[in-house]
């Protein structure tokens, strides 16, 4: 593989004009096709074939409703008054009539007739239907006209809140906070490289990759079902890994240029060595994301595949387009060299305990020891103590994860300033928390009399079920083939009590269905959401087995070691536990929630754990590959495990640090998107990367490697014969006029 990447890099640097034109034409074609064939993203969180979804599909056939946008208008009288009081009642009726006259409004409900007035008479809710299709946004002019139509109620003293899907605030995939995140990433790159050109190249390739991926997703949406959550996750990951992968290659290239290596040769070798690590790092992320398909949830499948495509694009552009850009930049990327350009000639060498004189000169050249090397030295002096302290600290952070609660998010997770959230809260206070998440029992039979008989039996049985606040009457369909009964739980839709109620109802009604011979099922959007949560929770274990198994094999092939993949996986589990623990503390316990802009505490999105598990595993393996490949490259040459650890820290610690900081800045920028689903994922990923990079990879990994010694690089002979040799470090690289071995990393300060 290294030889192939060497040739690709050399060709790109030598024929950079041809390569640039070719890549730009390819990107233009993808973008043009994507926008010309653009389809609509789907707002779907259901699972085809689940009990609640199956029943909901049946109910829609018997009780058809227009597939259009809808909304709710909540009217609330001042304390001590009722919406039916003289003056208020007339203003309410006048406002509803005005809403009905708005162009684009097809129907307006009557709260009194729809039993949508609270028991104290202070709150009323009117349903509004629009002519706009459900997958489209209601025109802003129509929404403004509806708001203006309720002015008579406002002037009379009624508080008016416009909620529901039509009034839900939609946010673009890229907003001001995301742009700030990219700006922070650029600053980190400039500090790392000390050059605007060198800093701009990783950002440029990442942005091009994300734009191409987004265009491809839009085109795919016209043919396939793509979740509306997929673009955000794909953009988040595409930017983060796109910058990091290019950063790794550019850093290696500039370090080689500082030794006087020709531009084309340097680009080729950087592509062969650092590029090989990028291939394996990207492959682990792609495997993890593609593994989301095992959950069997269409929404999750589209999110995983779209994000995997974004990561694959980042790898392809880093290996294909970046060499051409580096060739175009030429020697303008040469950094300012330190005391001496030749490795081992600087006389100001800091002693390193346990290393000979020649080893010290290779491990810590230059008069200024990098911080990463100093930190690694401290770890190597007391590896057992570092391992114990680091592990205990991460385990302590992970303890709150045992209380992680999951649910499908709704308007109750929206920002407190949004009208949808305000309407949700008022309805919950006035009608009970279960009013925002009603359940429905569907009865279906070919015999109309059997339908009525079974529905009556269900109604009788529900009277004795605890946890139900209210039961509606039996609603028989016009075709007489089905009937439905609405249930208002005593608890909110995202609570464990409501989930338990759904399970209890299914158990209670199963014998009834058997005795009557009719189809009886619990459904409704709340029941569908509960089924989604249960399905996702059940998919965590098989997903983990599939993803971890494939990635362990991949790392074993990359490093020819049995211990390193196991160590990497254990480190990932520690980082994952810390990420979940911090998420519980912020999103469920409310710690620092105000500072982070979290408006609602409670269960987090049910697909958050499996998404974070997939992404964080891939990113953790990124840092493992970047750091350990630098160690193995030195170990292959010198067979000194302790020296290899220090050399790996010198060559990769600064790059890993910059990569982690860039990841964190990108993820944090999405944290302030105020989208409930995105916020929890972004925070968990940012915190997980923080722990994984700076505690697990930079502290625990050197400690474990020091304790293992030569055993860290051993692979049983039988496995060594079976597994393919892919030459990740480029040890067999043999280009014309070059040595088969890649030279050691030069003495250079990459921030100069």
The rounded distance between the terminal residues' Cα atoms is: 32 Å
Poorly predicted runs are 338-367, 734-752
Count of strand segments: 11
Number of helices: 24
Count of discrete domains: 4
The main pleated sheet reads as:
5 strands, antiparallel
The radius of gyration computed from the alpha-carbon positions, rounded to a whole number of angstroms, is 30 Å
| CATH homologous superfamily assignment of the largest domain | Multidrug efflux transporter AcrB transmembrane domain
Mean model confidence by pLDDT: 84
How would you sum up this structure, described in words?
The chain has helices at residues 2-14, 16-36, 51-62, 88-100, 140-149, 151-156, 176-193, 196-221, 230-257, 263-290, 298-329, 357-363, 371-381, 383-398, 419-431, 448-462, 496-516, 525-559, 563-587, 593-596, 608-638, 641-671, 676-708, 717-722; strands at 68-76, 105-108, 123-133, 159-163, 406-407, 439-444, 468-471, 475-476, 482-489, 519-523, 604-605. By secondary structure, it is α+β, with helices and mostly antiparallel strands. The chain has 4 domains: 1-36 and 194-340, Multidrug efflux transporter AcrB transmembrane fold (Up-down Bundle); 67-167, Alpha-Beta Plaits; 375-402 and 565-719, Up-down Bundle (Multidrug efflux transporter AcrB transmembrane fold), CATH 1.20.1640; 439-523, Ribosomal protein S10 (Alpha-Beta Plaits, 2-Layer Sandwich). Strands 6, 7, 8, 9 and 10 form a 5-stranded antiparallel beta sheet that branches. A 4-stranded antiparallel beta sheet has the order 2-3-1-4, with helices on both faces. A two-stranded parallel ribbon has the order 5-11. Helix 4 (88-100) runs antiparallel to helix 5 (140-149) and helix 12 runs parallel beside helix 22. The chain starts with a helix and ends in a 30-residue tail after the last helix.
């Amino acid at each position: 593989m290294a030889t192939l990447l060497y040739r690709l890099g050399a060709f790109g640097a030598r024929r950079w004009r041809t390569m640039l034109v070719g890549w730009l034409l390819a990107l233009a074609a993808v973008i043009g096709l994507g926008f010309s064939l653009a389809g609509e993203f789907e707002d779907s969180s259901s699972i085809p074939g689940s009990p609640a979804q199956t029943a909901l599909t049946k109910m829609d056939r018997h009780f058809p409703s227009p597939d259009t946008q809808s909304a709710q208008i909540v009217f609330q009288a001042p304390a001590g008054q009722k919406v039916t009081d003289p003056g208020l009642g007339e203003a309410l009726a006048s406002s509803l009539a005005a809403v009905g006259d708005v162009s684009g409004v097809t129907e307006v409900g009557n709260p009194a007739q729809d039993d949508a007035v609270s028991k104290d008479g202070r709150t009323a809710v009117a349903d509004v239907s629009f002519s706009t299709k459900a997958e489209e946004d209601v025109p802003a002019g129509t929404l403004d006209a509806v708001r203006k139509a309720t002015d008579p109620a406002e002037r009379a003293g009624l508080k008016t809140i416009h909620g529901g899907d039509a009034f839900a605030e939609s946010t673009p995939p890229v907003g001001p906070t995301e742009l700030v995140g990219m700006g922070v990433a650029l600053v980190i790159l400039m500090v790392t490289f000390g050059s605007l050109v060198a800093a701009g190249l990783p950002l440029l390739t990442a942005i091009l990759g994300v734009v191409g991926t987004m265009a491809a997703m839009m085109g795919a949406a016209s043919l396939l079902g793509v979740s509306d959550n997929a673009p955000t996750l794909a953009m988040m990951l595409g930017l983060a890994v796109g910058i990091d992968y290019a950063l790794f290659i550019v850093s290696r290239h500039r370090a080689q240029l500082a030794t006087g290596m020709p531009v084309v040769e340097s680009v080729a070798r950087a592509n062969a060595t650092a590029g090989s690590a990028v291939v394996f790092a990207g492959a682990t992320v792609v495997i993890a994301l593609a593994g989301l398909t095992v959950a069997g949830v269409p929404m999750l499948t589209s999110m995983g595949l779209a994000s995997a495509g974004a990561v694959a694009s980042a790898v392809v552009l880093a290996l294909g387009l970046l060499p051409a850009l580096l060739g175009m930049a030429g020697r303008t990327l040469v950094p300012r060299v330190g005391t001496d350009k030749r490795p081992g000639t600087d006389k100001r060498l800091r002693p390193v305990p346990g290393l000979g004189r020649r080893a010290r000169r290779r491990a810590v050249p230059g008069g200024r020891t990098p911080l990463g090397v100093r930190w690694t030295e401290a770890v190597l002096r007391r590896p057992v103590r570092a391992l114990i302290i680091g592990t205990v600290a991460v385990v302590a952070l992970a303890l709150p994860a045992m209380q992680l609660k999951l649910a499908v998010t709704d308007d109750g997770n929206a920002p407190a300033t949004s009208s949808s959230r305000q309407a949700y809260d008022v309805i919950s206070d006035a009608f009970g928390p279960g009013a925002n998440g009603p359940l429905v029992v569907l009865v279906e039979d070919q015999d109309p009399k059997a339908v009525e008989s079974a529905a009556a039996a269900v109604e009788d049985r529900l009277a004795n079920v605890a946890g139900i606040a209210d039961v509606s009457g039996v609603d028989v369909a016009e075709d007489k083939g089905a009937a439905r009964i609405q249930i208002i739980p005593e608890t909110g839709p995202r609570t464990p009590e409501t989930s338990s109620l759904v399970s209890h109802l299914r158990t209670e009604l199963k014998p009834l269905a058997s005795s009557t011979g009719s189809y009886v099922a619990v459904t409704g959007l709340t029941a569908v959401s509960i089924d989604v949560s249960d399905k996702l929770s059940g998919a965590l274990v098989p997903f983990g087995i599939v993803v971890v198994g494939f990635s362990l094999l991949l790392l074993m092939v990359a490093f020819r070691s049995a211990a390193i993949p196991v160590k990497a996986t254990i480190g990932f589990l520690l980082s994952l536990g810390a990420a979940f623990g911090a998420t519980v503390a912020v999103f469920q316990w409310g710690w620092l929630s105000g500072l982070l802009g979290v408006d609602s505490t409670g269960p987090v999105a049910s697909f958050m754990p499996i998404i974070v598990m997939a992404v964080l595993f891939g990113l953790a393996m990124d840092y493992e590959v970047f750091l350990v490949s630098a160690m193995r490259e030195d170990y292959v040459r010198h067979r000194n495990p302790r020296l290899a650890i220090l050399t790996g820290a010198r060559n990769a610690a600064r790059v890993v640090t910059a990569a982690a900081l860039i990841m964190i800045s990108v993820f944090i920028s999405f944290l302030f998107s105020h989208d409930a689903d995105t916020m929890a994922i972004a925070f968990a990923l940012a915190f997980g990367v923080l722990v994984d990079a700076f505690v697990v990879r930079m502290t625990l990994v050197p400690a474990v490697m020091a304790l293992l010694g030569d055993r860290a690089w051993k692979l049983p002979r039988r496995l060594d014969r079976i597994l393919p040799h892919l030459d990740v470090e480029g040890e067999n690289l043999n280009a014309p006029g070059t040595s088969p071995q890649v030279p050691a990393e030069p003495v250079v300060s990459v921030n100069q």
